[in-house]
Write a structure and sequence with these properties.
Layout: E1 2-5, E2 18-20, H1 23-30, E3 36-38, H2 41-71, E4 77-81, E5 88-93, H3 95-104, E6 114-115, E7 119-121, E8 123-132, E9 135-145, H4 148-175
Parallel strand pairs: 4-9
Antiparallel strand pairs: 1-2, 1-3, 5-7, 6-8, 8-9
Length: 182
Amino acid sequence: MKIILKEDIVGLGYKNDVVDVKPGYGRNYLIPTGKGVIASSSALKQLAENMKQQAHKIEAQKAAAQKRANQLEGVVVEVAARVSATGMLYGSVNTAIVAQELAKKGIEVDRKIITMRDIKTVGDYEALIHFFKDVEVRVPVKVVAEGVKEEAPAAEDAEETAPVVEAETADFDEEEEIPAAE
């Protein structure tokens, strides 16, 4: 079934695209919600006429999207998150968090145009931001453990106390014998 999209739908197409979908998806979801219309011959002629009239407007939108994409050149999103001892995050880093971090840098991006998987471990990742039909930007996302910089001096103190702890542990092992399980 051929459908003319009335708005951008992630994974399917952009506004005014003619896409081929399964009949149930078109009849039961796209058409009733107003996200698409059946691509009849008269609807296709009307679409072609509208596209001619809107060509200038579309070029302006594309230029604005390209300008916004250029703002993100060289931007690295760094997210500090709470981490367990195994390196797994408590929760996850998702598109909403990436959008908030970009807003802190002065770049407003809607979370709905960001594509990435939920991040559950510390490391370097990549988010894809779709501004317009052919305007996409890949932004590096670096997930770090929360408070890593603060733990560096504490690690030096731990080294000084470590031999004392080992000595106490050695005494403990000598005093009490643990029977082997059979």
